[in-house]
Design a protein that fits this description.
Number of strands: 4
Structural class: alpha+beta
Helix content: 40-55%
Strand content: 5-15%
Amino acid sequence: AVAALGVPYRNKFPGYLYGFRAFPDFLLPTLGLVIEVDDASHTKADKIEADAVRTEMLEGYGWKVVRCTNAEALSDPRGAVQRMLASVGAWPLPTRLPLLRDSLPKPKKAAQAQRRAAKSESLQFKRKRN
């Protein structure tokens, strides 16, 4: 459904290459939009909190973040995408969009401290789950 929009997109975008610690499910750079598809585990308190932090971080980089559940994405993919785009004023799609090269973030190396913090955060999260 995202590909059917006809706008450039990236899935599992490697944010660490651009200085932020995230792999958004879908990034639509010309729309300035991140789409996250959440499974059932995202209804738990710790995931809700982690999602809020992640959303705040991505919005700090200038991206709008929209979410849907796996169930929505599987049962009505086009409807879910249209609903998410409409929620941020991007549906119907704008007739003029910026060029992709102007929309992607500029690559930069994450600071060593950020990489260490991301690794530590990931290990702590894994320990909590076990």
